[in-house]
């Protein structure tokens, strides 16, 4: 068994794509997942499952959500080890003057095309900063995430991948659920 984290995009936002977490947990248990826990109402799920590819797990969860709730929801999967690595590798965390509550990570469905990644690096929205490492885009938004132009839609339009963003507190919580 391996511990996975599922990040659902765009559920329970402004009254759209409403899914109750208790019902979602029950539906996911039908996929033979165990230890299912959710964190807040925005689609953060940790669970244990037989080791398979994260892409396959994401497709199974998305299929089950479509079947049961009638909603097409993008699902990104990271292993617990990957989430721990995301925390360790935050390239923006080295400056002690930065407030960790202003960190976010935009999770990408796939590694972006190298040329697209080079092009996006030319965008600059001070005081906000971003760094792309693999399938994660680390953000620092000192004026708050609600004020940034570094939105999931921005990254999707430039990188041509599906995205979802989580704040640092959520990422820490998801990575330490078994601690």
Describe the structure.
The chain is an alpha+beta fold and 179 residues long. Helices cover 32% and strands 25% of the residues. It is built from six helices and eight strands; from the N terminus they run E-H-E-E-H-E-H-E-H-E-E-H-E-H. It has helices at residues 21-29, 54-69, 80-88, 114-120, 152-159, 168-175; strands at 2-8, 34-39, 44-49, 75-79, 103-108, 129-133, 136-140, 163-167. The strands form two sheets. A four-stranded antiparallel β-sheet has the order 2-3-1-4, sandwiched between helices. The two termini are 17 Å apart.
Question: Keywords, please?
Answer:
8 strands, 6 helices, 32% helix, 179 residues, Alpha-Beta Plaits, alpha+beta, 25% strand, 4-stranded antiparallel β-sheet
Summarize the structure.
The chain is α+β, with helices and mostly antiparallel strands.
